Amino acid sequence: MQSGDLLDLDVTDVAHGGVFVARHEGRVVFVPDAIPGERVRARLTDTAKSSFWRAEALEVLEASPHRRSHVWAPADIGTAPENRPGGADFGHIELTYQRELKQRVLRDALQRFGGVDSDVVVAAAGADETADGTGWRTRVSLHVDDEGRIGPFAARSHRVVEVDDLPLATPAIADAVSRGRSAAPGRLDLVQPSDGRVRALPRPETPRRRGRGGPRPVVDPALRETVIERVGDREFRVDAGGFWQVHRLAPAALRNAVHEGLRAAGRDAVDPEAWHLDLYGGVGLLAAAVAELGGPATRITSVEADPRATDHAGENLAEWVGARAETGRVDRWLAQTEQAASSAERARMRAGVTLLDPPRAGAGREVVDSLLRLRPATLVYVACDPVALARDLGMLRAGGYAPVSLQGLDLFPNSHHVEAVAVLTDEGPLS
Fold it and tell me: First-to-last CA distance in the chain?
C-alpha cells in the first residue's frame, strides 16, 4: 500500500504524542483524532517505514462512548484533515477520559523507559476549571502568513488556518482575536497577565544572519514590558514575551505539587542552612515554592539561561536573604560548581533540595551525571514530556535515587500534553 490509500482501522490504544494505535495486517498504524475502541476510516499519509505507518482519520465508523463534539468546531473530524487547526488534539474526547488516556501514556513511559511501576494519577489543575476544559490559556501563539492570514497552524503542518474562535484561550484573548489584528508575517503572541489586559506581541520573521557581522534583529520593546503574575498572595515579575505557565491555574498547581511532594519525602520544613538549587529556574516560581518552606533565611540559587528571566528571578526572590539568581546553561553551571565548590558548600548541597524543570527534551545524561556526583538529598523533577522524564528517572534510579512521589497534572486540557512532578530521595549509590 502507499500514501493516499484508504483503510478501515480498529483503534486499540493511545500512544505518546497525541496519536492512537491501530494495526493493519500486523503493522502498527498511528492515527490522530480517534479514540481506543473506535473503528475509523483513515487515509495513509506515510508508508516509508517498515515498522509503522501513519494515517489521518476521515470518518468514524463506530464511535466510542467517550467521543463528544469537538470543543473547537474547525478541528472536528468532519473537517478535512488539512484544514483542522492544531493545538487541541484531544478536544473530541470527554474530559475525564482524556485524563485516563494521559495516565496510560505516563504510566507506560515510566515503566518502559524508566523501569518505574507507578499508579500515578493525572488530576485537574484546579477545582474551578471549566467543565469542558476550555478558557484556560493565558498565552496563545498564532502565526501570520505572507498573505496576512492569522491563525494556528493546521495540525502537523506549517500552514496557517484562519479561525473565528479560540476556545482554549481565556475569553479576553478569544475576544481580542475575534476583533481581528494585522501583523507582519511571522508569529503573533497574545498574553493576558494577572492585570487582565491582553497584550498583542508581534514577532515578525527576521532574515537569517550570515556570519558574525550580520545585523541583529531588533527586539520589540513590547516583548520586554514587565508584567505582574500573581500566585496566591505572591507576585512575580516577568517579561510579557517571556516564559510563564500558560494555564491560568498552573502556577498555583505546580507550587502545591512541589509542597506536597516535599512533604511526602519527609521535608515538611526545608533546612534554610542547606544549599538548594532551582535549575532551569525561569523567574523563580519553583524556587519560591521551596523557599516558602524554609523561611526568610533560605539559601537557594536559581539557574537560568535567559538573562532577562534571571534578572526577574533576582527581584522575585529578594525577600529570602540567602537567595540569588545566576545566568548560565545548567550543564555548564553544574560542571563549574563541581570544580569550584568547597567541601562545606558540597555538604550544604547534599543536605538540600534540587529542583529541575528542564525543556521538553529533558535534563539528559550530562546534567543527571552531575547531580549523581553532587548528590542533593532530595530531587524535585518537573516534566512536560513523559518519555524524557522516564529516561532521566531511569538514570537517576540507577544512580541510587528512589522516587517517593509522582503526580500528574492536566495543565493542557483538550490536548495530549501532560505535566508530571516527581520527587526522589538519595538512597545511596548502587554497589
Answer: 52
Closest CA to 286 of 361, 380, 374: 380
Spell out the residues 6+ positions from residue 339 whose beta carbon is closer than 8 angstroms to its own.
none
Per-residue pLDDT of 101-150, as tens digits, reads 999 999 999 999 999 999 999 999 998 889 999 999 999 999 999 888 88
Q: At 235, phi and psi to the nearest 5? A: -110, 145
Residues 198, 173: contact at Cβ < 8 Å?
Answer: yes
Q: Which three cell numbers stand for residue 72?
A: 473547537
Quick one: DSSP state of residue 160? B
Task: Tell me the pTM.
Answer: 0.93
Question: Distances from the Cα of 137 to the Cαs of 88, 165, 230, 250, in angstroms?
Answer: 12, 13, 15, 10
Q: Which residues of 149-170 are buried (b: 16+ CB within 10 A; e: fewer)?
A: ebbbbbbbeeebbebeebbbbb
pLDDT band at 164 (very low <50, low <70, confident <90, very high): confident
What pLDDT digit, counting tens, does each position of 245-266 carry? Answer: 999 999 999 999 999 999 999 8
DSSP secondary structure string for all residues of 37-54: T-EEEEEEEE---SSEEE
**β-bridge partners, 43:** 6, 56
- Helix (H) / strand (E) element for 389: namely helix 386-398
Is 189 one of the catalytic residues?
no
Q: What is the DSSP string of 190-233?
A: EE--TT---EEEEEE--PPP-STTSPPPPPPGGGG-EEEEEETT
Type of residue numbered 127? A
Catalytic residue among 262, 309, 384, 423: 384
Please provide the DSSP assignment of 311-371 as one string. HHHHHHTTTSTEEEEEES-HHHHHHHHHHH--HHHHHHHHTSEEEE---TT-SHHHHHHHH
Measured distance CA(154)–CA(281) in Å, rounded: 32
Determine the pLDDT at residue 224: 86
Q: How far is residue 113 from each of residues 15, 391, 395, measured CA to CA in Å? A: 14, 5, 10
Name the nearest CA neighbour of 99 among 423, 408, 420: 408
Q: Which residues lie below 8 Å from residue 150, measured CB to CB, with a gap of 6+?
A: 142, 143, 144, 160, 162, 177, 180, 181, 183, 188
